[in-house]
């Protein structure tokens, strides 16, 4: 059976199909026409090719509104193959140049390596000021510290919450270091926008889409950590949620993923850096502390992160790790952080970056 269609020459967007629908061999012309019309009614263009075994419909244009799952459910459809990534704003395709995020003159992305350091949790005024002062002396550009803590156990320390934000502000006043801290829900979003320089979305909230959308309505820089079991595509789609609401100030952070290995807390996926650099224009930093879960692995992994082309590091530093309220086992002392910075600086230089 041969099917011949009169096809208006479609406007091919950048010369390739974005989506291909493959129909089974004996599909009725009327079925193909119906699906073609559905796709075209969403503003896309189609072309039909009749092969010996299959009928292929190529789709170009903005396919974001097409319900391909429903098309896939049609019994005449053999499969739907996507040719282009589903993230438009986070993707490099329409935005070839690297994004450099500017936080009051402190940049993430580009030539300078951004270093975010500080304790897992803010515990007291003395603690946060001492650590902030020390990491600044060693060359950190941002201060981290959790005020709202996502803990595995509800009985573990949950953070100082709003008091923690106040203490971070004091540390910023003392040192001038901009603050990076995690938001857990939309509850205090206005306070975070007011008080915080970079809002962190933790691994556990990477797919909290309500939170991502609300953060997308702000202009704050969002540090988006990769989910525990998130694929690179899911990671970039989470960034897309923020960006699709209008906030393009997104920094990605790899912090290790869940694998079958149990020796380390997580498995640091260093290949994500070149992958993200190819797929996206967004800056990507590495958190070796949460990745390994062991303080003595922080230095080698931090060095590897810089060598592989990361735009920055997030490192947990504590003045008294043995008595830290959270993540002491993976926190390095200020002296060790100073040493790590010296090593990292040397590698950054080889990579043509400054610290
Ligand atoms: C943190 O940065 O303290 C944290 C909880 O990280 P993650 O979300 O990567 O586990
Ligand atoms: Mn931590």
Key terms:
355 residues; alpha/beta; Alpha-Beta Plaits; TIM Barrel; 8-stranded parallel barrel; 4-stranded antiparallel sheet; 11 helices; 18% strand; elongated; binds phosphoenolpyruvate; binds manganese (II) ion; EC 2.5.1.54; Phospho-2-dehydro-3-deoxyheptonate aldolase; aldehyde-lyase activity
How would you sum up this structure, described in words?
- With 355 residues, the protein is an alpha/beta fold.
- The chain folds into two domains: 81 residues, Alpha-Beta Plaits; 250 residues, Aldolase class I (TIM Barrel, Alpha-Beta Barrel).
- The chain is built from eleven helices and 14 strands.
- The strands form three sheets. Strands 7-8-9-10-11-12-13-14 form an eight-stranded parallel β-barrel, surrounded by six helices. The chain has a four-stranded antiparallel beta sheet with strand order 2-3-1-4. Strands 5-6 form a two-stranded antiparallel ribbon.
- α3 runs parallel beside α11, α6 packs across α7 and α10 packs parallel to α11.
- The radius of gyration is 24 Å and the shape is elongated.
- About 2% of the residues have low confidence.
- The structure holds phosphoenolpyruvate (PEP) and manganese (II) ion.
- Phosphoenolpyruvate binds next to loops.
